[in-house]
Amino acid sequence: MVNEKSKIKNIVYTAMAIALVTVATMIIRIPSPKMGYINFGDIMIFITAAILGRKIGFAAGGLGSAFADILGGYFIYAPATFIIKGIEGLILAMLVKKDKEGNLKSQSIVVASILSALWMVLGYFIYEYFMFGVGTAYPNVPANLIQGGVSAAVAIPILLAAEKSGIMFKLKINR
């Protein structure tokens, strides 16, 4: 019974994380200089990946962001977004460290957020370079840097507050 409860909890957390990323991505969309758009989905990717771990971080980042691209009419980006944002969530979850008591280390949250955001910028640059050429790839770098930086700046204090409040313990999350 315990194993069955754990599976159900995992499914519910995964579905909720995917939905949160999709909605956060679609609520605010600021067009980038050439195709694409700036959004707040990465904030939710960082938060869900840090709190819920690698598998859910990958699923939420990849599926949630790809769903937003499909629903928003950016079909051409959906496959790349699935990979880029999925790996972004995975990187963040893998780099976030815990202390002996199981609390998230604030320094690791900062480093993980920055490196995850930089991966996102690089991933989209590579995709856009090969799909659309240098004329699309380079102009979107500053917009992607802004998106990653703002997302990290918003997610980090939220994660630190969540850790301080004990929400990870209350959710009984097995990362």
UniProtKB/TrEMBL annotation:
**Gene Ontology CC:** membrane
TM region positions = 12-31, 43-68, 74-96, 108-132, 144-162
> InterPro entries from the entry?
ECF_substrate-spec-like
Highest taxon of the source? Bacteria
Keywords per UniProt: Membrane, Transmembrane, Transmembrane helix
Q: What protein am I looking at? A: Uncharacterized membrane protein
